[in-house]
Automatic annotation (TrEMBL):
Keywords: Glycosidase, Hydrolase, Metal-binding. SUPFAM superfamilies: Families 57/38 glycoside transferase middle domain (SSF88688), Galactose mutarotase-like (SSF74650), Glycoside hydrolase/deacetylase (SSF88713). It holds the Pfam family Alpha-mann_mid. Gene3D superfamilies: Glycoside hydrolase 38, N terminal domain, Glycoside hydrolase family 38, central domain, Golgi alpha-mannosidase II, Golgi alpha-mannosidase II, domain 4. GO terms for biological process: mannose metabolic process; oligosaccharide catabolic process. Residues 270-347 form the Glycoside hydrolase family 38 central domain. This is Alpha-mannosidase. GO terms for molecular function: alpha-mannosidase activity; carbohydrate binding; metal ion binding. Belongs to the glycosyl hydrolase 38 family.
Amino acid sequence: MTKQASIHLIGNAHLDPVWLWQWQEGYAEIKATFRSALDRLKEYPEFVFTRSCAAYYAWIEENAPDMFEEIKARVAEGRWVIVGGWWIQPDCNLPSGESFARHGLYGQRYFQEKFGVMAKVGYNVDSFGHNGMLPQLLKKSGMDYYVFMRPEKHEKELESNLFWWESEDGSRVLTFRLSDNYSSSWGTPFADKVRKHANMADADGHAHMTFYGVGNHGGGPTIGNLEAIKELQAEYGKEAFVISTPNRYFAEIEAARPELPVLKDELQMHAVGCYSTHSESKENNRRAEHRLLTAEKFSSAATVLLGLPYPSAQLKTAWENVLFNQFHDIMGGCSIREAFQDARESYGEALHLAAKALNAATQRISWSIDTMKPEVKTLSKDKNWLSWEQGDLGTPFVVFNPLSWDVEVPVHANRKMTGVEDDRGTAVPFQTVRASRTNGQDNWDTLFLAEVPAMGYRVYWCYLSKEPAPAATLETPATAEGSVLENAFLRVEFNRHSGAVASLLDKRTNTEVLGGPGAVPVVIDEHHSDTWGHGLHSYRDLIGYFADAEVKVLENGPLRATIRVTSRYNDSVLRQEFTLHAHSAELRVNAKLDWREKHKMLKLSFPVAVERPESYSEIPYGFIRRDTDGKEMPGQQWIDVAGHAPGTENVRGLAILNNGKYAYDVLGGEARMTIVRSPIYADHYGERDDRVEYMDQGQQEFAYVLAPHQGVWQDAGIVRKAYELNVSPVGVWETYHEGSLPQQQTGIRVSSADVAATALKQAEDGDGWILRCYETAGRPAETALEVPMLNRRWSSSFGKCEIKTFHIPSDAGLPVREVNLIEFETAE
């Protein structure tokens, strides 16, 4: 070690607000830790403290206002440095792209409002893996640098711990991986750790950062730490060991302009089990993310069209709940059982607040649609106690589509009808289906096929007794007979004994999609795994299958045909309802699982009949290609396995879409979607006695879709199909009334099929509207964008996987301009 080696000593207080304790304890510990840091600042004039997580500061502001003012003074002085401009240190694989955008939006704006600064350094030193789109998400949230620790050296070899990290769109952030842990409270003695890092810095030819301070349950830098630093500085010189900040470290590195490698990859893998633990919180996360976005879209429409006040405060509260629950030890499923009860309550509040906003908006819109008919003089329920229909005039049912493209989608209406027509009086296909109620003879509902414009609505007229017109008859209905489902596009045959999909025939090309039995429930042994899956790469220790199958026809068309397969393993029961719709080339599965296994995992297996297989999956606001080597991987709404049809050069594949599952593996051409695993709560290979509790015991529901395709997934509309599974239309029963709105309205038009508009919301500054879009297919796109209710139309060029945020001023005389994720003007 030479005296010229430069170590930047970062005073850090790693603090999990939830892990082996509940958030209330984390709340108290944050106050004590911040007080300790302020004490050190008084005692040691050279000390500087670094702290992330806007949520922590909000708690201090709420509960210790005097201390909050003291922190503000230290920030202004430059001795308390704000990093990590997100609401919390989240899991960095599981939140959606829009959730990462909101971490930056609410985190950075909080810091700017309260302290007059924003973080320049992204800071997730404890998160378990980092998705490959983060460089763009960080850059567009005002952060040029990134610090992480995991995956560590034994988990992922890097050319250097200091490098440029580049996402698919070309965005880069200067990134440093900690050479050691984020704490001085465990592992190598502090002074020895600093000397070791100095030797590493000598060898690498550039400075390193060394974090110090008691961590995990707070604490932060101690008097002992700071005295040890004094001793090191006395021995080697202050220039060798500098009390510093990540901001200073990266600024000095950039000024030195060293030659650094560029990494264009995700940063995986630390804890492979965290993407399948605690199914309930993961499903709640997915539902809350989408419901909030839907509520924002129609709240925006109701404000613009009808003057309904935009519910910004309640939606922000709901988003803050969701963002907090994305903390890596909550979202990663490795906390104590009580913590997940808290998460359940928090998600419940978020979902309810979103539901209230959505209901207010859609009902204000539906109540303002002109549904009056000349024959109606006054409202009356003389005909039926449940419906306002008079004569054979029908009852209006308004269907809202939250997605940024037109959809053709089956809609479930909770009344039994004899016919359905659209707003032009054209009969549409419908089917009587079983209701969720058992109320005498009133246990049937209606399913009808709706075509609804993008981010818009359409009125359908439902009739209690009027006979349907012949035009509503389907030429090629969906059918179910024995063990075979069929429509115009697919033929699905089940093995009557095992319940597996014996054949999935794509009738469009007369090719077999599967290379063996599909949708097979396989049971994996995971006794060797802790809750996190530490030290593991895969879960493939097969110990059994669900068997003893019962195959039963539930519905036989014409619009929808369904076969239910019930199978068992020990005391666990899986019911999969396989459905074909007449209009669709996808096989949808609604599943109910009663899981009674411990230290076991359930996967569903799908062998795809292709050669030279490749695997792609969705990551936040992007996608990634991964090796087909059987490793457990995180994914979002879809995965795809494609290759060449046997003996040909024709590309084909199978996409597997899900509504709340986040883990999978692909070995060769076989994809396995992870459904559930049942480790012990917060078990890091501890004592497994008869008092431990296991995760995910009991009932859960989920859905998935099998979408066979010819050619590459980008040309098969897979991204759109995945959104359609996750984002359902919203239906509102109406009555007869006059109104200012037509019976059909479009909310947005996006000309490129590769560009999705995911968020439409009021601007945070209150003036105008924010529209966020991203390129979904990994290829440049030119697109025209139009928001008719704002009378705005413009064009934009998207690079591959590029995220763009547009500010649409309320003043129509001002142009639409591109802003960053924090809704600030982008630098040219």
